[in-house]
Design a protein that fits this description.
Layout: H1 11-14, H2 17-48, H3 57-60, H4 80-104, H5 109-133, H6 154-184
Helix pairs in contact: 2-5, 2-6, 4-5, 4-6
Length: 185
Amino acid sequence: PWRALHGAPLAELSGDQDFQLFLQKNLEFTRKIKGDVATLQRVVCDTFQLCKEEELLLVRQDLSIAQVPLEQCHSLNFQAEACFSQIRDGLRAYHGSLAAVLELLPGDASLVETLQLDAANLSSNIQQQMEDLGLATVTYPTEGRDALPAFSSSFHHQVGGFFILANFQRFLETACRALRHLARL
């Protein structure tokens, strides 16, 4: 699906130095957040021996943890506004769901809290840049994504934390690809 991005209608922004600087800074920030998520994934692996997603797929069916969508960042009719809006909204959703990880890993509270702060800051950066560029902001429905899942057991909580982090990592990988693509335009 990434080949479709070559037709992205951003010619008016491609030479904008401020926009390019924004993209570079936030690409680095997104990479930093990805690294912190990977660190927490290793903690979950080491602490609970939950390391392989394919081993947990059956348990996942019992949990209400959805992947936050980013289809606007790799759709055939790619638009920066829609992609940025989905990244911003997804970061807000993960900011909230990281509370379940915080409960799960109280010994790593400072890293989880830093990750929450970084997700909030990146979301704010994107919102501010969209406003500065005069891009239309779109808010995608977040039904059911703001509430933390209720886990029926500590094992389900552990698996839930695993999937929250795994989904966040995939979300950040897609966000990085979109930011890298926009920086090349």
